[in-house]
Amino acid sequence: MSIDIPARPAALSVDTRNGVAYRVADLGLAEAGRHQIRLAEHEMPGLMSLREEFGPHQPLKGARIAGSLHMTVQTAVLIETLRALGAEVRWASCNIFSTQDEAAAAVVVGTTGTPERPEGTPVFAWKGETLEEYWWATQQIFDFGADENGAPQGPTLILDDGGDATMLVHKGTEFEAAGAVPDAAEGDSHEWRVVLDVLRDSLQSDPQRWTRMGQGILGVTEETTTGVHRLYELHRDGKLLFPAINVNDSVTKSKFDNKYGIRHSLPDGLNRATDVLMGGKTVFVCGYGDVGKGSADALRGQGARVIVSEIDPINALQAAMDGYQVARLDDVIGDIDILVTATGNENVVTVDQLQALKHLAIVANVGHFDNEIDMAGLESLPGAERIEIKPQVHEWRLPTGRSILVLSEGRLMNLGNATGHPSFVMSASFTNQVLAQLELHTKLDEYPIGVYVLPKFLDEKVARLHLDALGVKLTELTPRQAQYIGVDPAGPFKVDHYRY
Amino acid sequence: MSIDIPARPAALSVDTRNGVAYRVADLGLAEAGRHQIRLAEHEMPGLMSLREEFGPHQPLKGARIAGSLHMTVQTAVLIETLRALGAEVRWASCNIFSTQDEAAAAVVVGTTGTPERPEGTPVFAWKGETLEEYWWATQQIFDFGADENGAPQGPTLILDDGGDATMLVHKGTEFEAAGAVPDAAEGDSHEWRVVLDVLRDSLQSDPQRWTRMGQGILGVTEETTTGVHRLYELHRDGKLLFPAINVNDSVTKSKFDNKYGIRHSLPDGLNRATDVLMGGKTVFVCGYGDVGKGSADALRGQGARVIVSEIDPINALQAAMDGYQVARLDDVIGDIDILVTATGNENVVTVDQLQALKHLAIVANVGHFDNEIDMAGLESLPGAERIEIKPQVHEWRLPTGRSILVLSEGRLMNLGNATGHPSFVMSASFTNQVLAQLELHTKLDEYPIGVYVLPKFLDEKVARLHLDALGVKLTELTPRQAQYIGVDPAGPFKVDHYRY
Amino acid sequence: MSIDIPARPAALSVDTRNGVAYRVADLGLAEAGRHQIRLAEHEMPGLMSLREEFGPHQPLKGARIAGSLHMTVQTAVLIETLRALGAEVRWASCNIFSTQDEAAAAVVVGTTGTPERPEGTPVFAWKGETLEEYWWATQQIFDFGADENGAPQGPTLILDDGGDATMLVHKGTEFEAAGAVPDAAEGDSHEWRVVLDVLRDSLQSDPQRWTRMGQGILGVTEETTTGVHRLYELHRDGKLLFPAINVNDSVTKSKFDNKYGIRHSLPDGLNRATDVLMGGKTVFVCGYGDVGKGSADALRGQGARVIVSEIDPINALQAAMDGYQVARLDDVIGDIDILVTATGNENVVTVDQLQALKHLAIVANVGHFDNEIDMAGLESLPGAERIEIKPQVHEWRLPTGRSILVLSEGRLMNLGNATGHPSFVMSASFTNQVLAQLELHTKLDEYPIGVYVLPKFLDEKVARLHLDALGVKLTELTPRQAQYIGVDPAGPFKVDHYRY
Amino acid sequence: MSIDIPARPAALSVDTRNGVAYRVADLGLAEAGRHQIRLAEHEMPGLMSLREEFGPHQPLKGARIAGSLHMTVQTAVLIETLRALGAEVRWASCNIFSTQDEAAAAVVVGTTGTPERPEGTPVFAWKGETLEEYWWATQQIFDFGADENGAPQGPTLILDDGGDATMLVHKGTEFEAAGAVPDAAEGDSHEWRVVLDVLRDSLQSDPQRWTRMGQGILGVTEETTTGVHRLYELHRDGKLLFPAINVNDSVTKSKFDNKYGIRHSLPDGLNRATDVLMGGKTVFVCGYGDVGKGSADALRGQGARVIVSEIDPINALQAAMDGYQVARLDDVIGDIDILVTATGNENVVTVDQLQALKHLAIVANVGHFDNEIDMAGLESLPGAERIEIKPQVHEWRLPTGRSILVLSEGRLMNLGNATGHPSFVMSASFTNQVLAQLELHTKLDEYPIGVYVLPKFLDEKVARLHLDALGVKLTELTPRQAQYIGVDPAGPFKVDHYRY
Q1: Is residue C440 helix, strand or coil?
Q2: Mean pLDDT over residues C362-380, rounded?
Q3: SS3 at position C126
Q4: Chain D interface disruption, residue of B321, B331, B335, most D CBs within 10 A
Q5: In which residues is NAD(+) bound (chains A, B, C, D) (predicted)?
Q6: Cα D334 from chain centre
Q7: Are C314 and D473 inside 8 Å of each other by CB?
Q8: Which residues contact B475 (CB under 8 A, 6 or more apart)?
Q9: What interhelical angle do D209-216 and D164-178 show, nearest 10?
Q10: B477–A311: do the CB atoms touch at under 8 Å?
Q11: At the N or C end, where does chain A have fewer CB atoms within 10 A?
């Protein structure tokens, strides 16, 4: 498969191992990225502490990590932490829009390298990939050159976000076992067709590639709800090829990244995209999970009137107790200035509902995929016209005569219109990731095939590594108090089902 | 054991079954209580829905329920719901101060009864019991008269709050097996001595009483953290005599009662006790669990500056992310106007710390027992003087020359100085209680000895029964959406480890 | 006019000067009041600072102050501050329900007196006066016995709240000039008829009493919006008899008392009256002035969904910017659980609207008079039935079959159901009052007849006296900074039209 | 004076009247600007309503308006509104960094023009002017070509922000009267030297230019505190040349722009500059005026712990009542992650304080001039090194070994790092501006020389024009209610000293 590497932005990796030089990164870009990485390190105390604690022991020596996760400044700090612990790393983004090119460039070039002689980590990602380019890039992270015997060598660990890398191994293995890649069915998405093409090419050129790859992988650590969901399904169906650690459900991930991260980046994205005052506006938030809670909180904090919808009566009751009107979208649709989806479900906003919105209402998705809003339906709506106001901000002129503003083409606007979660929040998530990679690399026998969350004491450790930076002084239990509540004075402090 | 029943308040029960009439309730009190119960019913839609749904089928027919839970207006609605579903009920409070006498009187007298001919439910509780009276009352709930064969008859179910009733059965059984009740050890609390006396008397008069009682009990449903903690310990040690349902950890209990209940009743108690402006004051909240979260939220909502302490790094990080200063008590003790304990641990505030507080600082416990603050230490502090400002509000003049105001003698001030959690919150908790009692009475085979939480669909049901009253409109999943996220359109909607 | 002094509560004043002993206060009540006053002093740093600063100089020596203001614990601290500065004082409440009997008793008895030999200040007030009793009591504050020549002697200053005392002097003077008191007109309120009777009796017994009284008065300091409004009207019409200081519009009064006071006492009153959970409820607040702002803020702080109505587009825009839905009452009336009036206008809630509310909706007035809600209309509504749940809490069964709960009979519920504003807030208001009395007593020549607000440096002084108690550290301007912004480093710091 | 017009950005005006074409705007830029202006119009309902109401009558016919105000998208809507009402307009920015080049380009080119044949309004502004360029641009707005008699023609009205245009006229007139421009004194700022040079050149080329200009000007409408302050000083000193309307102190300006505008743009600027998580951080806000209130509110809404400093005891008490710690900067300086100045004073943060901050603490000014933080001191600090992270974001490496991040070089970061106040807020401010221009142009006789605020009914009108867009439904007074509170049912509704 031949990919036409785009001429710019120049933030693209080089793979020196194979002697194949793709377009190298730009030095100016790399220097800008280096500055940002340095500032981000200051905001990522968890990762920096791990470097300090584990760096001298090189516990990831021998690990070959294939990473598929938004290639941002924060991910750069993650990548360099994995390297500092001894791992070999290759990286792609898990989203076609989310790469920050200067971060990618800096990671590729390394601290003392140049674009011509990069000394960093191979990264295959740039902002604004096509789907073909995206899946080409995803394949590159599996190619760790040849071992000492000249045999092709894949990763020992996957670090995944959304499960695309994991899916490639599993589907590849499945199709290789079947000896054929099925044809796309009618109604299959364009993306799925691209994946099938990729695997079809692979089957032709190396009929055991993914099977071999899967056998070499010790395990995967997965970042998000969606990816975790896929893993539980694979395991339920007996198809999971290696153990998986569900990083998403560490408390220090799900309750921090999802809630506090979005509280930060939703208003940030709205501002960068539209500069529209949130104060006084009526905002509808679909879903009151952690992401919805963070969204509602941020918008109220900016003086918006927030209305929430929910399908789960418990979350609905929480929303009510937190002072929000809980309504069905259809019942209040004519009042809404800003519509935010935070559900992780599909078709939460239909084309009919898009057409019922006020003129120039803003539509923003912070849930997961772009099918949360029926973008496909909108794209095929007769008479609808799409005008680019600026990248990732489009006015859709509707047959009703009204327009709406759709952010990031219905994809995650906190990534597309803002810069994703801020470093501090990602530090908590990524510290979990590194600890999870360490678990799989060093204690594999404790993880037979299955899906695991990290033990609570590691979760608490992640939190602990982030307190000093915030000036938080922890109170310590006396031995008598610890005994009174039946815990070790060093923790863990809570029963497993504690909800925080 | 002879108890001198206090002459007033007259809110005391009668037990007609044994022909022994204790002091009967006062009709005026009962009428006042009846009004309040009627208003509370309006605020307890969950319980009223259960009456409507299950009343005609009498599913609790044959159940004899011994209840030990604060005898408030809300509990009256619970008791009458249990009765409406067919149960026979006897009740005591689980706290010497928390009884609302008018509620007790109304429950005893019943809707159409009189103090002379009460038609309600036997209740053994009044506001301001001594410890001796308290344990006398607790014993009464186990005495369901004689069966058709004249044999003494105990409860089939316990509905417990804090585990005192359950403890009596377990300790009684243990001592009966040993054939003796141990002497109190030096350092044993006064309360434990009272318990030992009660069991010693019992062993003498009926050496198999508690053993027999325990054998007749199908199970217990427990309301609070502390009680649940005891149950898990009993089960871990192989001593649990019957299955237990942990109502406390239903989401609709722990995340509502603990958080939203205290958000309501902490400021209420502060107001009724002291009328002190919370705005502008510096408040220190020990503990950022659900109770601490609700406390901090309420006080910030009143314009206080809130500082939080924590021992768990995860909760500490949550407090910081919610915008609170997280500090050690000792580091800021000279700045504090109001000190709130919300930990469930012991000795969280020491006598030294009490003495370091500002003049007329307010000390309030919403955690659990009165040992959360070192009240025993304060009482034995040479030179300390206690002045009653009004019931449950005491000024302690300290040797330092400063005073502090201690609410509810260090016990739960939301019960002692306010009226406990409001009806709506208790409706959620108590709907869980009724569902749990139904589970044990009707599906005992699904509950071998152990400690259980209610299945998630019942938790969601509890939430659902409270939405209409708040005008909440739930959104419904389409079948396709349900399939997309892999759930039944009717729920349950979340994985078990979901944290809300 | 003969008044039948009620037998209990016994918190009633004695007037020793005239040798006429009315029912004396109860010692137990007085002692309870004394405790509360001591605690209140701690919360009223402004008044205590004035005692310290001015007490030695006795600047109010020779002042005879007639006070008409809610006879609460806080007012007791005010009265004793005026005394400490040298004034002679007589007091009545300005509301038939707002007296706290223990405070009245303590003020009457004094620190070392007894009911038989009271040594305090004459107070004519008890909780639950009839209108006849109220106006009898108001008259008593004008009777300062005889001067050294035996001539009857009135006050030199009025301290008023709502303007009733001031009105009596002005109307008395007007009718004395006319030589007759007019008959009541049809439609005149009962209260107005009582006032006419009082003045008719007075005219008969002493035809120059109020004229003489008015001539002896140096000025009045007025506490509230309503009273201030009356004063501006009197002055506009050329009828004002003496200068008036508008204490209400000191920043440290209006922006603190109205906003932060009601933020405290509205939820307090709702709790004491109904114990209803505010969280999750839909609350409608009529009016978004300072009182409405404080109301909305408090209710949101408790997790209520708040909807606001406004007639002023500026305040309406503020409400929207603060995140509240701004609607007309009629448009959302079926959704409301709690209805709060905060306007100072009349007939803001009509009988039709009362009937359109949900079953057991709560109706609470924190605006001003009871005509804010059409209570008169409700009382004359055929088929409406009033049931007393407890004092100041009435269920009204309506012809619709639904009920509503009306608090404090439509009068100020923060006074009737709670204990009014807390001490700290009243300290700011009352420190303004004392400073205003000082201005009139000591610098009368600077106040020709007219209505004045206190100069800004005194307003700032009031604030300054309340900072230490809250641990507030003020930053000081350097001389250069002061010059840069063109102010004195000691203040005042703002232009007069600054809005805070 | 010759100015070297920068080659890019190309957003620069053309003046066709004089036949002198400066660098014309870029069409792509203009088209981008046109899109943004169209979206902004939707968010500026006040201005659009004025176009609709007044456009047909051309009430500004004959007005020549010299505007000196940040050349943003919102200002474009203002300019085009003034044009739509009949005025002739020339514009410069009032800040060297705040111009949005695409907005400038769009205004210059006009809706149907081209860069070669611009049909819009002359604008002299681009992002990143030098001080020499800035003052050159400011001069251009006074040059309205020649009248029908060929005499040079200046503006009839100034629309000013900060008072630079007004200052030029006043200083020019003063120096022309003196016949000489003084030499710069030692210690004079670079900017003041530039102004003196400008006026010296002017005096040489046309010794009556500014005198003539001042005589032709009917009045000025001024946008900000600083400018208003200068006007009151000029008037106090008898030097004011023409009447001024203080737009800043319209309620719908100062209480909206300052508070709600900064609430929006402070976190926006922090995000765009640094992407740093605000949640959990300790933020210090200097000043609790309207800007400080909005700042503190926004940061708390993002989960920061906010500490406030104040010099005014009233504002300090407000901050405490709103729940903020009020401290002196020096006392907590080691805890601060983000330092925000919101005072309008000078030297509020000294170089010593900058050096005492934590490593990588962020320093942001939203007050007024860059002397609020001692940037001059920092620039001359030996051993301090400035590293540009990106435009308007600089790391200063300090001799202490620590660094700080300074935003916008100490100037207004909401303009330099964000896009200023959002359109909706500016709509309120600018609607006041247009009404003020209308007052001066059409009712000059009502405005003898002096400084005025707009009458309250116009202030209320501004608010009213913004309600529909937010879905706010205003309640209307009945005639009886209006009479009861003594107002016209159509307003104004409040006394002049009402503080909102």
Answers
A1: helix
A2: 94
A3: coil
A4: B321
A5: 224-226, 258, 287-292, 310, 345, 414
A6: 33
A7: no
A8: A286, A309, A310, A311, A328, A329
A9: 130
A10: yes
A11: N
Which residues of A sit within 8 Å Cβ distance of D? 32, 35-36, 39, 42-43, 73, 260, 263-264, 267-268, 271-272, 274-282, 297-298, 300-303, 335, 359-360, 387, 389-390, 395, 405, 418-419, 422-425, 470-471
Question: Are D252 and D457 a contacting pair, CB within 8 Å?
Answer: no
Contact across the interface for A312 and B494, Cβ inside 8 Å? yes
**Binary contact (A302, D298; C-beta < 8 A):** yes
Amino acid at A459: D
Cβ-contact A473, B331 below 8 angstroms: yes
Ramachandran class of D14: left when φ > 0, alpha when ψ lies in -120 to 50, beta otherwise: beta
d(CA B228, CA B251): 15
Angle at the Cα of C402 from the Cα atoms of C401 and C407, rounded to 5 degrees: 140
* CB nearest to B485's CB, from A320, A345, A428: A345
Amino acid at D347: N
Give the Cα separation of A158 and A441 in Å (integer). 11
Interface test with A, best of D264, D275, D407 (most A CBs within 10 A): D275
Interface of D with A (CB under 8 A): 32, 35-36, 39, 42-43, 73, 260, 263-264, 267-268, 271-272, 274-282, 297-298, 300-303, 335, 359-360, 387, 389-390, 395, 405, 418-419, 422-425, 470-471
Q: Which spans in A374-446 are helix H?
A: 375-379, 413-416, 423-442
Any known ligand binding at D347?
no
Q: Do A481 and B329 touch (CB under 8 A)?
A: no
Query: What is the C-alpha R_g of chain D?
Result: 23
Which region, left, alpha or beta, applies to residue C70 given φ > 0 means left and ψ of -120 to 50 means alpha? Answer: beta
Give me the mean pLDDT over the B270-286 stretch: 97
Interface test with A, best of B317, B332, B483 (most A CBs within 10 A): B317
Check residue C260 and report its DSSP letter: I
Euclidean distance between CA atoms C138 and C158, whole angstroms: 12
CB-CB contact of B84 with B58 (8 Å): no
A-C interface: how many C-beta pairs under 8 angstroms? 37
The CA distance from C56 to C64, in Å, is 19
Q: What are phi and psi of A352, to 5 degrees?
A: -60, -40
* pLDDT score for C446: 96
Question: For residue B441, what are the CA distances in angstroms to A83, A382, B157, B251?
Answer: 59, 61, 8, 22
Q: Alpha helices of C55-208 — where are they, by DSSP H?
A: 73-84, 101-109, 131-140, 164-178, 190-205
Residue C389: which of B35, B359, B423 has the nearest Cβ? B35
Q: Is D432 annotated as a binding residue?
A: no
Query: Residue A30 — φ and ψ, nearest 5°?
Result: -65, -40
Out of A126-140, B463-477, C276-290, C337-351, pick the least confident: A126-140
Kind and range of the H or E run holding B222:
strand B219-222
Q: Do the Cβ atoms of A449 and A483 come closer than 8 Å? A: no
DSSP string, C365-390: E-SSSGGGBTHHHHHT-TT-EEEEEE
> Which pLDDT tens digit goes with each residue over C172-225?
999 999 999 999 999 899 999 999 999 999 999 999 999 999 999 999 999 998
Strands (E), A227-337: 244-246, 282-286, 305-309, 325-326
Instruction: For strands C393-397 and C385-390, give the pairing.
Output: antiparallel
Find the helix packing angle between A27-42 and A73-84, rounded to 10°: 80
Binding site of A for substrate, by residue number, is: 72, 161, 223, 253, 257
User: Which residue has better confidence, C368 or C392?
Assistant: C392
